[in-house]
Structures are given as structure tokens and as C-alpha cells.
Amino acid sequence: MNKDISFKAIALRSFVYKSNHRRIELITENNEIISALYYKRKKNSSFTVPISGVFYLTRTKDQYPYVIKDFDLVYDYNFIYKNFEKLNSYNIWANILKKIKDQGRYYNLLKASFSLLEHYDAKKIDILFLLSIIKEQGWSFNLYNCPLCNYKYLDIDIIYYNSNNLTNCCKNCSENTSNLYLPPNARKYLKLYHHQDITKVLDLEINDNTLTSIHRYLTRYVYFLLNGGINYDKFGML
């Protein structure tokens, strides 16, 4: 890279660095995760993550090789701090992306998710985000057949989880010890994400218990696939 670089990015996470400065984690338009220092030089020069914009960086020979010289704000997502569920969504997304080594195409996913989060129910956007993560990572999540025995699900069937194989499954293939499951109506709703215009799905009325059941299943499902790297008790994944 050149000594001075600029790119579109989302400033996703912020950490205190030497009292008055911060270390910012950026996810760039090229889907790279870059850690850069931001030195607060004047009273109004700071910002609150998450934001999207154009960032201007310079390289250094210090512990952190990049320093943010300046940025042009495109959009701030501070609406999340006015709603606990939306803030919880942000924490879930940030912690999942932190644990994924292959970043995939997550810059555009984040931009779209934040845009939708401002106008729709947080759990519905989490579901969309988690399904996108599962698809991007190539993880198994079959709503039609059990991946272990190829049993074809009936409309009345419940989907369970097999922790040894890290996959969803039918009742016969489950370990009968997990309380992680998807009721039939939840499975029917999830199918719509694959076959309907997404805004139409988000506008659908859905029972809150069903929505909570789906949210709980998918967050724990991704958590297990990431080998326990996310503290779902801390970030509201129960």
C-alpha cells in the first residue's frame, strides 16, 4: 500500500488508547478489517461509532501501522443508542464479524443492515443478517431436509440441533438434550426470506414468540459454529 491511502469504510468498533485517543476497527469497501489509531486533536474532531464515510489514513512504524488523519462522514448510525434492541443488534453483528477470519462480502451487508435497522424491527434485521452470514460462510442450514439422514420435513415438524455435527436436524438426529429448536411456524417464516422480496417479508406481521424463537435459534446456531467465541449471555443472544 502507499504511505497515504483513502477508502470508503464503516468504523465499527472503538477502543480507548492511551487515555484520550482511540483505536478504531474499520471494515473497508474491499472487506478488509483495518485497525487504525485516531488521535483526538481538537474538541469537535471526535466521532461515535458506528459511522460510514471516507477515511484518510497514513502508515506508521508503530505498533498499529495506520493512523486516521481525517474522515468525511457519509452517515452515522447513532440511532442505535436510542433503542436497546437496535444497540443489541449492533453488538451482535460486531462480535460475529470479529470472530470470522474470512471476512467475505460484509461491508455491503453491514451498510444494508444498518439502513434497514433504522426502520424495521431489530430482531427481523438480525435474522436477515444471520442468514446472510450462514450463507456467506457456506454453513449448512437446510429448512427442507435433515442434513444428517435426509429426512424430508413435514409441515408439522420441529427442527432441532446436533452439536456434534454443528447442524440443524430432525428430532431423530438430535441429541434430545438441547432446548434449541425451531417450531413449524418459524420454519415457514424463514422460508420466505429465500423466496420473497425482503421488504415484504420485513413488513409481515409475526407473533413475537415465534420471532424470539427464530432469533434465539439463529444467534446460538452461529455462536456454536464460531466455536463459542461470542458471549451470547452478555450480548442478549438468549
Structure commentary:
- The protein is α+β, with helices and mostly antiparallel strands and 238 residues long.
- It is built from six helices and seven strands.
- A five-stranded antiparallel sheet has the order 3-2-1-4-5, covered by helices on one side.
- Helix 1 packs parallel to helix 3, helix 2 runs antiparallel to helix 3 (122-137) and helix 3 (122-137) packs parallel to helix 6 (208-225).
- The chain is elongated.
- Residues 229-238 have low confidence and may be disordered.
Roughly what is the average pLDDT, rounded to an integer?
85
Q: Note the main sheet.
A: 5 strands, antiparallel
Q: Rough shape?
A: elongated
Strand content: 15-25%
CATH T-level topology of the largest domain: de novo design (two linked rop proteins)
What's the helical proportion of residues? 25-40%
> Uncertain segments of ≥5 residues (pLDDT<50)?
229-238
Radius of gyration, whole Å: 20 Å
Structural class: alpha+beta
In total, the number of strands is 7
Helix and strand string, N-terminal first?
EEEEEHHHEEHHH
CATH top level label of the largest domain: Mainly Alpha
- The number of helical runs is 6
